[in-house]
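Q: Is it fine to ask for two folds in a single conversation?
A: Yes, each is treated on its own. Send the first.
Q: Here.
A: Result:
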Amino acid sequence: MADEADRGPGERLYTELLKQIAEIDLAPGEKLPSERVIAQEQSISRESVREAFSRLQAEGLIKSAPGRASRVCNLLSPHLQLPLEGLGDDLDFQLQVMEVRALLEGECAWYAAQRADDQELEALAQEYARMHARAKQETTLARARADLQFHMLIARSSHNLLLVSFSQLFYERYFNAIYGVLSRTLKKFGRYPQGIRGQHAQIHRAIQARDADGARRIAREHILYTRGLLAGE
């Protein structure tokens, strides 16, 4: 392997960006800085930036188009087919979606409690506050989106590429079912169950306290609690 000094600026930038993608410093779907900005920050030529970008695009790691910002690709997207998108109103399918969410969000919370940096913990605190405020006044659809945004930020903070990639695809694919769960819950009880709000607070506190086992347990219980309400358990 060549020494660092023997590698050109384009290859060094490629290696750095590859590391950022693998460690979720650049997450799936996220915009990369422009060629001009990177060239200025790294004190290299724009030709070297284009060299690194071209290599990443050839490997399917980013997507670039003339006149548009380059974005990180979701590496699972070409290989993962998630079925039955059109069953958002079907209770049995909604319950299955909740079962997967319980496992997925438990693991995301476990890793986030260990790996989130201070800046990410602050961003999570701010998102939790916004979610709590929106829940008091917005529509069911807005609440569902706010809930997923909170959980997706936890996934991002896990710094686990597979968890982040799958979470992103899963939430996008089955948003209708997740929205349907909240809508069905509100119709059944006439309100947003107080237990759910309390569980969001517990998940948030456990991650902020870096209590990985507690965060995993509470995140799973949070989803299974709602599933139990719908299933009449």
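Q: Second one now.
A: Result:
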Amino acid sequence: MGKKIFWALVIVFAFSIAGYAIVQYGVLKASNAGLVAFKLQKPDFELTPWVYVLYVHIVTAIFALIIGPFQILMKPTNVRKRRHRRLGYVYVISITVSGIVSVYLSLFATGGRIAGLGFLLLDVLWVGTTLTSMRKIRAKDIQAHKAWMFRSYSLTFAAVTLRLWLAPLVLIFGDFEAGYRVVAWVCWIPNLLVIEAVIRKKGLR
């Protein structure tokens, strides 16, 4: 697959999931979303404040999901460097906030402790790779900055791969909760493995 086609697909998927989230949680009722509807079947589940924390996570994650590809693909010119820096701060802040509130969400993850641990590790690595990328560019290590930004966005893209994996896994296991336990890990580990191969191929430190 050519580089242009690959990034075109990444952008299409990113915008598609962002659009879905905006419509589902911003236009329609959150209670009609598949995950929320499943949780509401549990008699001991409290919708608030969980749903408000979910909204914070969704809004900030959408910013990161949309900004990421353009940050990676942006060609360095004087004007674009300033834009890149500003968008970079929005990206970092969005992921930091989203990652922190996601720790709370992982405590109530569908699928129990196994799924919760998968999402918790994702949150830690997500914030960690992003902050490391920022630290590397402040040290003027551009190659390392790019490598860590690739890792960061591969974890941001878990928002997309989670939805791509979920339906097949639910069909395989015949149960939504069982599928969700697996998708909590599958949505990000393959992403990270693939991007590590890309980093090595590019020869980035």
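Q: Anything structural to flag on that second result?
A: Two points. The longest helix spans residues 78-106. The chain has a mean pLDDT of 88.
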